[in-house]
Specification:
The chain contains 14 helices and 15 strands. By secondary structure, it is α/β, with parallel strands linked by helices. The strands form 3 sheets. It has a 7-stranded mixed beta sheet, with no helix packed on it. A 4-stranded parallel beta sheet has the order 5-6-7-8. Strands 9-10-11-12 form a 4-stranded parallel beta sheet. Strand 6, helix 3 and strand 7 form a beta-alpha-beta unit. It is globular.
Length: 383
């Protein structure tokens, strides 16, 4: 059955918003998107229709650790406190918090999520949820740990994984036309450890009683992974907050999708990625949230709002694309992320308050206010 949905604005995720726009949808597939005609018999809504959001990087099992880690200490201090939080938190609390996080993703309009897990605790919850998901089974120090059915294998980071595992996880993803993920160039502590084998990360390993059995590469993470053949379109390069222009050029040459998690970077290291430079260089980064241990929510529109406040000259259209179509492209899900004929992104409605005017600039309004939204058409069909 075809529905004809209209609103004051349709923000497509690709291209200019459509004033007094109409979206024709058959089940979950977009049949047409255009301006409303006088002859249209529409379901009309006040506000903005937009595509379902895409969040390529979360750690849902870390939701129970919200408020248990102090900000600003760097990745080694964060990892130490995160480890203590794991030890002091029951699995029942972890499961309850993970389920609440899945529910929050649905509520804020997430159509597709990438969840990085060591335990698989949220995988069955995501399988039951009315959204799409990719689960990355993260292996630290090359140890697969608990098997997670249907998950894609992923190495944690170049400072925590042996070179053969970094190469193997990418090779498995590439050979199956799949996807993997790696934390990359996240913080200066990572660079110091990879170059010199010392600093806070080495101290973290000493405190944890971990004997690092793989060689220190003596070069930064991006060229290191490039030399291993572990960069390319089948691996999400998550964070790149500490990447240099030359290292970002390597990511572009290898067509490695960039996923930024600005609120997590600010929480852990007090820095944001250089978004204006990343965009000027020609990259189209996606937006993730990381876990609730380092970010206040799982809403990628709120991530866009932080970047808008920090970099007001960045076009709001690009920020909306980062939360929608560019995220779908990074995750190799071309049917999602944009209100375009033939795609099935899920459709959200963001209505203004009853006492507020319809926004004159819908993309800026979405980014600045991150308004409440509800599903009109879920990514699995009508809502």
């Amino acid at each position: 059955m075809t529905r004809t949905l209209s609103a004051d604005w349709v923000v497509t995720g690709e291209g200019a918003p459509i004033a007094d726009g109409v979206v024709l949808v058959d089940g979950e597939t977009i049949v047409d998107v255009r301006e409303r005609l006088a002859s249209d018999d529409c379901e009309h809504f006040r506000g903005v229709i937009l595509p379902g959001l895409v969040n390529p990087h979360t750690h849902l099992e870390g939701s129970a650790f919200a408020g248990k880690v102090e900000p600003g200490g760097g990745i080694a201090a964060f990892a130490w406190e995160y480890k203590q939080a794991i030890r002091s938190t029951s699995m029942d609390d972890v499961r309850r918090s993970a389920q609440a996080a899945v529910d929050a993703l649905v509520e804020c309009g997430t159509a597709l999520v990438g969840d990085v897990t060591n335990t698989g605790v949220a995988a069955p919850m995501l399988a039951r949820a009315p959204i799409r998901s990719v689960v990355f089974h993260e292996c630290i120090a090359g140890a697969p740990g608990i098997p997670v059915d249907g998950a894609s294998l992923a190495a944690h980071a170049p400072y925590s994984s042996p070179p053969e595992w970094l190469a193997e996880t990418y090779g498995i993803a590439a050979s199956s036309d799949g996807l993997t993920s790696v934390h990359l160039a996240e913080h200066a502590d990572e660079r110091r450890f990879l170059l010199d084998g010392d600093g806070p990360i080495q101290e973290l390993y000493r405190m944890l009683g971990v004997d690092v059995r793989f060689p220190i590469p003596r070069r930064p993470s991006v060229p290191y992974l490039a030399d291993l053949g572990a960069l390319g379109p089948h691996s999400l390069a998550v964070h790149v907050c500490d990447a240099t222009p030359m290292e970002r050029e390597t990511l572009r040459e290898r067509r490695s999708p960039i996923v930024l998690c600005p609120r997590s970077n600010d929480f852990i290291g007090g820095a944001l990625p250089d978004l204006p430079a990343i965009l000027a260089e020609g990259s189209q980064p996606a937006l993730g949230t990381d876990s609730l241990a380092s970010s206040p929510s799982l809403d990628v529109l709120e991530e866009a709002g932080v970047l808008h406040a920090a970099f007001p000259d960045v076009p709001c259209r690009a920020l909306v694309a980062m939360a929608t179509s560019w995220g779908a492209a990074a995750m190799r899900r071309p049917l999602l992320g944009a209100i375009v004929k033939g795609r099935a992104p899920g459709l959200l409605l963001a209505p203004p308050d009853d006492s507020a005017d319809v926004p004159a600039d819908p993309e800026r309004w979405l980014v600045e206010s991150s308004p409440p939204r509800r599903w009109l058409v879920g990514p699995g069909g009508s809502a």
